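A reminder from the course coordinator: this example appears on the midterm review sheet, so study it carefully.

Given structure:
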């Protein structure tokens, strides 16, 4: 049965797929668990978004934010594959999640053998590195029980040492020091504004990912969604000229134009002061 499920994912250019039993899931949002059904397994999979395009600008914009919004991708994906899976697995139910999930998807992926956990607390896959989104399907289908031991990365500390704000600690990511988190805040302190300016951070941060040796020679995504309309020449003019319809197709749109435009202005002022 799982081989038939794999074919459905492979048809979507998704090759990194595994599963764990329900007892091996770590529940973090019980209020969004499917009601009225007994969940027996979790199918977990990785969606690569890395696309080796030539970036023309020199702004600190995370690769994921240069591609179209992954939430749109997952919504469309589930609309396509859930009916197919329920047709293959008669009388079974499948419930799709990504990002906002009842379970800890990162731990589920590691337990399914899809990667190791880095010191920056990201899942790192052998083919796609840490440039992946994690999706999960909770299902009433019982799959054979098997779980991988969660493995750490090489422990080289390059991600830790590369972080300009010291946000990576042994206990986890200090969100208040993380450039990615700061860039997404609507209201920022003077110190936070200075951190963004000093590091030319506009939205998100890939510094620790780029330092990771396990991300060298990362395979580019085969998924066309993440290769179409990539923003490889980010600028204030580009954002200002975007229609609201197009703007809403990118993952930073939830904060509105004002926040990202102010971040660009900070970065531009840093460049001018050099």
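Designed residues:
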């Amino acid at each position: 049965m799982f081989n038939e499920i794999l074919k459905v994912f492979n048809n979507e250019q998704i090759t990194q797929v595994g599963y764990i039993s329900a007892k091996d899931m770590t529940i973090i949002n019980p209020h969004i668990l499917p009601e009225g059904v007994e969940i027996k397994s979790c199918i977990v999979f990785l969606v690569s978004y890395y696309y080796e395009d030539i970036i023309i600008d020199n702004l600190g914009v995370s690769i994921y934010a240069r591609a179209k919004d992954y939430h749109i991708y997952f919504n469309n994906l589930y609309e396509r594959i859930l009916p197919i899976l329920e047709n293959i697995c008669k009388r079974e139910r499948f419930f799709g999640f990504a990002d906002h999930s009842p379970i800890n998807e990162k731990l589920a992926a590691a337990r399914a053998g899809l990667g190791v956990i880095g010191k920056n607390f990201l899942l790192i896959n052998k083919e796609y590195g840490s440039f992946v989104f994690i999706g999960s399907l909770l299902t009433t289908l019982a799959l054979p029980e098997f779980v991988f031991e969660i493995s750490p990365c090489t422990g080289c500390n390059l991600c830790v040492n590369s972080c300009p704000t010291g946000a990576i600690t042994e206990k986890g990511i200090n969100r208040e020091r993380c450039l990615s988190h700061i860039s997404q805040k609507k209201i920022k302190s003077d110190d936070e504004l200075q951190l963004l300016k000093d590091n030319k951070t506009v939205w998100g941060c890939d510094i620790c990912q780029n330092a990771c040796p396990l991300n060298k020679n990362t395979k580019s995504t085969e998924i066309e969604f993440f290769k179409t309309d990539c923003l490889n020449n980010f600028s204030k003019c580009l954002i200002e000229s975007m229609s609201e319809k197009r703007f809403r197709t990118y993952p930073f749109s939830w904060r509105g134009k004002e926040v990202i435009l102010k971040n660009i202005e900070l970065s531009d002022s840093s460049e001018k002061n050099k």
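The radius of gyration is 20 Å. Residues 70-88 form the longest helix (19 residues).
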